Amino acid sequence: MPKWLSNQIMRAFHKRDRRQIRLLNDCWFFYYNRRDDSGPNHDLQ
């Protein structure tokens, strides 16, 4: 997880900002799945 995203998530949890937590969670899953799809082993699955 990028450091900037980790900082944003921690800040959102600290403020108890549910909307921001949901948005950042969606961003993380989008980033993680996109990165996973572009990996060298993607063709093997």
UniProtKB/TrEMBL annotation:
InterPro entries: CmpA. It comes from the Bacteria. It holds the Pfam family spore_CmpA. This is Cortex morphogenetic protein CmpA. It comes from Paenibacillus faecis. The lineage of its organism: Bacteria, Bacillati, Bacillota, Bacilli, Bacillales. The gene is cmpA.
